[in-house]
Each structure stands twice: as C-alpha cells, then as structure tokens.
Design brief:
Number of helices: 6
InterPro entries: Cadherin, Cadherin-like_dom, Cadherin-like_sf, Cadherin_CS, Cadherin_Y-type_LIR, Catenin-bd_sf
Radius of gyration: 65 Å
GO molecular function: beta-catenin binding; cadherin binding; calcium ion binding
Organism: Centropus bengalensis (lesser coucal)
CATH topology of the largest domain: Immunoglobulin-like
CATH architecture of the largest domain: Sandwich
Helix content: under 10%
Strand order of the largest sheet: 1-7-6-3
Shape: elongated
Structural class: mainly beta
Protein name: Cadherin-15
Strand content: 25-35%
Subcellular location: Cell membrane; Cytoplasm
CATH class of the largest domain: Mainly Beta
Distance between the termini: 159 Å
C-alpha cells in the first residue's frame, strides 16, 4: 500500500473572506454563492453553521441549500460584531459528506455611525493667578466607538468658547489645556468656563462638546486697605478689657485665606499701651479694646495711628504699594470714680495706755474726679473694741478710750480698724444732723447736678499698740521656807512675773534692798535663770519668821523696779537638810519651796511617771514644806502668842500695834468664819532674835479683807485660804507622811490603801 499524501482542496470550495458594510439596509442581501466540484444536478445539499446562523445572534445569515447562495437577512452593527466565522457544508442527497467543511468569514465593514463621547460632561482644573503662558492646567479626553484603525475614530479637540481674552489653548490631538497668554487675575475673573469640542474623521466628522471649568487660585497680590482714613469712637474711663470700636478694611484677595487675613498695629499715640487691637476673624476688621484702665482726669483724648497688612507677605509679582494707615480718635468719657486710699493699709503706732483723745493719724482718701466738685466724708466701718473716733470731714482718728494690753481685740499687738470714704454723688435728702453718709446738697445755679451715683472705698487702719514698761516685776511667791543652816537646805528658789510683754519683762534682777546693807551678812541672792534667783543662807540662823525687803527690777526701757517683802520662815534643819518642824514651817511660810525640795520633787515626778519598775530601797518623801496641817487652824492659840502678821509690800514701815483680841473657834465648823473674820495667822521674827537687827511690824489682823480690797497684788500675799477636810477619810492625814524624816521611823504600808493613784508609790516604798 502506498502512503496517501495530503488531499488537495478544490479551488472552488475555498471561500475567501466576504466584506459587508454595517447598516446595510437592502435585506435580504446576497453575500456569496458556494459550489462543490462534485456537484451533480440536483444532487448536492449546502448548509452553513456558526454565529449568526444557529448561534447567537440567530437568523442573520441563511443559505439556499440547493444553489449555495448565502444571504444577509438583518442589518449589521460593527460595534457589536465586527466579523462572523461560519462553517459551510456540502452533502449528497443521502446525507453523505461530499466535501470537507470549509470556513466562511464575513467581515463587517465600519461606517462612521458613532459620535465621539467625552469621558465626563464637566472637567475641572486649577491654576494660580498670574501664571505664565504655557502653564498646563488640565486634559480633556473623548472616545469613539468606531473602528480605531479608520478615520471614523480619528479625533481632534478644539475650544469653541472661553470668553474674552483667549487666555487658554488646547492641544488638538491630546486635549491638554494650557494658558495661552499672561494676565490671569483672580480678582478680575476668578473662574473660566470653556466649551471644548471633539470631532472624528480628523476633525471633519461627527462632533461632541463638553465644559471645562478652570478656577484661578489666589495669591497675595493685593494688600489690605482701610475703608476710610479716619475713625472716631469713645469709651468710659476705668473700663478695662472692653471693646472701643472697629476700623474697617477691604482686601481683594480670597476671603478667609491667609492672603486676605489682616494684621493691625498701633504705631503712634499710645506710649503707655492703654489700647490693644486685634483682628475679627470673620469680618477681617480691626477691633480696638482697652488694655489698661483709662483716667479721664489724666487724659481725655487719644489720637492713634493704626496700620494694617496681611499675615502673609505680598507676592514679589504684586505691584508695590505703601502700608495702609488710618487715624483713630478715641474720646475718654468721664464717670464718677470711687475715692482711693493711696496708702492701704495705713500702719501707725500708739503707746499703750495713751489717754482718750490722743491723735492716732489722719487717714484720708483722694478723689480721682478732679474735674468734679465733690467732697469726701469718712466713717469708721469696723472698730470692734470701739477704741477710736473719727472726724467725718478731716479723716482724723483719735482714741476714744485708753488702749491697754492684753485685749482680745489685739492680734499680735495690732489693732485692726476699717475706714470708709465716700464721695458726695447724688443722694436722697437726709436730716441735717446726720453727718454720715453725706446728704444731698440742694442744687444752686453754680452747682451742676452729679452725673453719677456716689461711690465709696475702704481703707485698713493697722494700729500697733506699743508696749510701755509700766509694771514692775512681782515676787512670786512672796513667802517661803528655808533651813537655817548654810549649804544644803539653806536656799530658796525665788521667781517673779511681769504684766508687761517683751522686751519689758525678763530677765529679772533680784537683790537685797540697798536700803538695808546689813542683810548681806546673813543672806545672798544669785541668778538662777532669766526669771528666777536663789536666796541662800550665809550663816546659821535661829528658827522663826523673817521679812526680807528685796528689790526687783525688769529689763524694760526704762526699767521698772519695786521693793517687796519676802516672808521667810527659818526652820530647824534635819539630817537631810530639810526642816524638822514641817508643820510649823508650812503654816508659817505659805506656798514657798526650797531649791533642794524643788529638785527632789522634780526627780520624784519623773520617777513616778516614767521610771522602770524595779526593786528600790524606800526613801522618805522630802517635801514637807508644801503641806498644811489643819491642826494649826484647830488650835490657833499655839500660834497667835508668838506670831505677827507679815508686812504687806504696800504697807509703811511703822511701829506695830498689838493684835486685837479674838475669841478662838470652839469647833472645826467655826474655822471658816474665823478665817473670814481674822485672816490667816502669819509669823514674824521675834525682835530679840531678828537677824541683823531687822524688826518687822505686824499689820492689821483684818488680812482677808485687806487682800480682797487690794487690786494690785495677788490674794495669797496676805491671806491663805484653808478648808477643813472633815473626819472619816479613807486615807490618813497627809501630814503623817512628814512626821518622820528617816527611813527607820517611816512606815509606808498604808499607801496601798489609798487607791490606784498611789499604787506606784506603794510598790516603791511599801
């Protein structure tokens, strides 16, 4: 078998592409006739298949099955289908294929049946004003549905309309719009509306139009200008922070932009900086306000020179122009102003004890309204102690009564008062006798009515009450007990008080009276601290009462000194340097305490309050000088024969008169009456044994009455108040504690029976 080579297709069965114009209106239209070489008369059947026949779109093409003629049955649209590819078949009557299927391609020929279309109806672009020619702004573009390979889709662009000036041009091929000439000015024309056209067939075919809107962007090529050269306004004096008025400007640049925003400056006429100016961001006007309170009496008119310029600098291309200037005239309107105290507070000093009527100061206010005829009146608005009085016309302040220390109205030695000053603005009529507030004065032809209501001001008057050294120190206490033996126990701690405040008080100076130099042989006084001194026995003295004249002096300027009597009871000394006869000493000396006893008491207190609990050998309690034995009051006859009343510091040194005879109380219930009638018995040194020849005369037995009537001394310098403790006490009498001065003779077991407050002592000594 020989291999069969490729079969040759008959030329008549090969069909070249067939072209047909779109929109062909003669239907049906013969396109082509196909034939088979094996054609037999009435023996070949032709058919076609493909899009437009048996596929979508259906029914466009058909074939005569006997003749092979292919027909167009509908109008074609190249923009929908630009070609159709079909298959042609040749069969015999029995359906057997006579020829292999052949391709039948139908090409749709384009016609210019579509106008160009712009991609959008309105194109928008921006360009700065003053742009140089050739500055491109935007590009417009269009499309054409026709065959791009033909002139049917060859587009050309043009500007149909743009207004006067011909400021823009368009590239006919690309559609790019650029500036064509100089002179774009936003302030003249801010927006350009261009009508652009696109045409196919290279500009000779179908056309369409669109709009191109070009906005000019603003540059700062126009400086702001005042609407007029002068402005006038007015403001009330003393008004700070208020707006006075506006200066108006105009700027051609875009409103609201930095090129439009104005900046104002006050160049002249306000050296004190009384005014300020700011820009209203909404209107771009200048707002002038008061920065500092104005005073009509100082200056009632201002003439300000104000300039304006933009926040942004002008473009170099802008034409040069001078800075805009305007004159602003401000009138300051006069109003009634409150009086003012130029010195507030006013600080003055007054000596303590200044008599009533003493001039303190003249505290006056000034009226800022110098151009108004007004009178200022004064009154005390606050005077808590009512110490002061004030002249309502002159403002002179005087004392109403004596100013003394101490006082609840003083604060650190200062007295605070408030003064009210008020002008005589319009007031309703008031009685003639009322001096404050000022009454309305009837109007006269020469007196204009006040324009404003009255105003007032308050001034603070601070008065320092200077301390005067008008009190000498007082001996405290004026009595004491010492042991008659030099050394331990033979000393007494003396103290003093002074009613004056520093620096007129301590340090105090204690000394024996210089009028009695013989006292220095038996006694000495040494300084203990700034307020106390120590009295010591120099030689052994017999027991009994003594009255020592002492001279006490303070450290004030000038210093005050006073001679006072110290009542001393000299007691017999025990082994520990304390008095043996504690009962007698306590009754005689009153509240005195020896220096040694003071040290022992302080130590005992520390031990009692905070000392550790540990075994301790009990010691006698050595403070008999502070105990009072009520038995002495029950049996005053034991004391009266040998006692004399101590000399009062204010009593003259005169011969004593014998004490009046008194009936002694018959029972303890009569003791109070006895004390009130006679006074507490006190002791004086008997003349035969008085040291250094000092004799102390007694005073009147009416001691209690004398003490109550003496306002300059404490009551205990003459009389001591006692009370009867009654019978049946749970604890023993306190005097029993000092009945023995040695550990061997003292029994402390009873301390545990005195209750919880004495339990600590019971643990230590019981």
């Amino acid at each position: 078998r020989h291999q069969e080579g490729p079969r040759r297709v008959k030329r008549a069965w090969v069909i070249p592409p067939i072209s047909v114009s779109e929109n062909h209106k003669r239907i049906p239209h013969l396109l082509v006739q196909i034939k088979s070489d094996k054609q037999q008369p009435g023996g070949v059947i032709y058919s076609i298949k493909g899009p437009g026949v048996d596929e979508e779109p259906l029914g466009i093409f058909s074939i005569d099955k006997f003749t092979g003629k292919v027909f167009l049955n509908a109008m074609l649209d190249r923009e929908e289908n630009d070609r159709f590819r079909l298959k042609a078949f040749a069969l015999d009557l029995g359906g057997t294929t006579l020829e292999d299927p052949t391709d039948l391609e139908i090409i749709v020929v384009d016609q210019n049946d579509n106008r160009p279309l712009f991609r959008q109806d309105v194109f928008t672009g921006h360009v700065v004003e003053g742009a140089v020619p050739g500055t491109c702004v935007m590009t417009v573009d269009a499309t054409d549905a026709d065959d791009p390979d033909t002139d049917n889709a060859a587009l050309r662009y043009s500007i149909l309309e743009q207004g006067a000036g011909g400021m823009f041009s368009i590239n006919a091929t690309t559609g790019e719009i650029c500036t064509a000439s100089a002179g774009l000015d936003r302030e003249s024309v801010g927006v350009y509306n261009l009508t652009v056209q696109a045409a196919d067939m290279s500009g000779d075919g179908l056309t369409t139009t669109a709009t191109a809107v070009i906005y000019l962007q603003d540059i700062n090529d126009n400086p702001p200008e005042f609407t007029k050269e002068e402005f006038s306004m007015e403001v009330e004096e003393q008004a700070a922070g208020v707006d006075v008025g506006k200066v108006f400007v105009h700027d051609k640049d875009l409103a609201g932009s930095p090129n439009w925003l104005a900046k104002f400056t006050i160049l002249e006429g306000d050296p004190e900086g009384a005014f300020s100016i700011r820009t209203d961001p909404h209107t771009n006007d200048g707002v002038i306000s008061v920065a500092k309170p104005l005073d009509h009496e100082v200056r009632d008119r201002f003439e300000l020179t104000v300039s304006v310029q933009n926040e942004q600098p002008l473009e170099p291309s802008a034409p040069p122009s001078p800075r805009a200037l305007a004159t602003v005239r401000v009138r300051v309107r006069d109003v009634n102003e409150a009086p003012t105290f130029r010195e507030n507070p006013r600080r003055v000093t007054v000596l303590e004890g200044a008599p009533p009527g003493t001039s303190v100061t003249t505290y006056t206010a000034s009226d800022p309204d110098t151009r108004q005829l007004q009178t200022i009146s004064y009154a005390l608005l606050y005077d808590p102690a009512e110490w002061l009085q004030m002249n309502p016309h002159t403002g002179t302040v005087r004392t109403r009564r004596e100013l003394l220390h101490p006082s609840a109205f003083l604060q650190g030695g200062w007295y605070i008062a408030l003064v009210l000053a008020r002008d005589d603005g319009e007031q309703p009529p008031c009685p003639f006798a009322l001096s404050f507030p000022p009454c309305r004065v009837p109007l006269t032809p020469h007196r204009a009515p006040p324009a404003e209501p009255p105003l007032s001001a308050t001034g603070t008057l601070s008065i320092e009450i200077l301390e005067v050294n008008d009190h000498a120190p007082l001996l405290q206490p004026p009595a004491g007990v010492v042991c008659g033996r030099p050394g331990r126990g033979g000393s007494l701690l003396l103290g003093a008080t002074d009613e004056d405040r520093p620096p007129h008080g301590a340090p105090f100076h204690f000394q024996l009276s210089p009028q009695h130099p013989q006292l220095a042989r038996n006694w000495s006084i040494t300084r203990f601290n700034v307020t106390h001194a120590v009295l010591a026995v120099l030689v052994e003295l017999p027991e009994g009462p003594y009255s020592l004249p002492l001279l006490l002096r303070d450290s004030g300027t000038p210093p005050q000194e006073q001679q006072q009597l110290l009542n001393i009871s000299v007691c017999p000394c025990g082994r520990e340097g304390v008095c043996e006869d504690g009962v007698l000493a306590a009754a005689t000396a009153g509240a005195g305490i020896t220096l040694g006893a003071l040290m022992i008491i302080l130590g005992s207190i520390i031990l009692f309050l905070g000392g550790p609990s540990q075994p301790h050998t009990p010691d006698p309690i050595p403070f008999p000088q502070d105990a009072y034995d009520i038995n002495q009051l029950r049996h005053p006859e034991l004391l009266l024969p040998r006692a004399k009343a101590p000399t009062r510091r204010d009593a003259p040194l005169s011969p004593a008169s014998p004490p009046a005879s008194r009936t002694l109380p018959s029972s303890p219930s009569d003791i109070e009456d006895f004390i009130n009638e006679v006074g507490t018995p006190a002791l004086s040194a008997p003349s035969p044994t008085a040291p250094a020849g000092l004799t102390v005369p007694p005073v009147s037995p009416q001691g209690l009455e004398a003490a109550d009537g003496d306002p300059s001394v404490p009551p205990y310098d003459t009389a001591l108040i006692y009370d009867y403790e009654g019978s049946g006490s749970v604890g023993s009498a306190l005097s029993s504690i000092v009945s023995s001065l040695t550990d061997e003779d003292q029994d402390y077991d009873y301390l545990s029976e005195w209750g919880p407050r004495f339990q600590r002592l019971a643990d230590l000594y019981g």
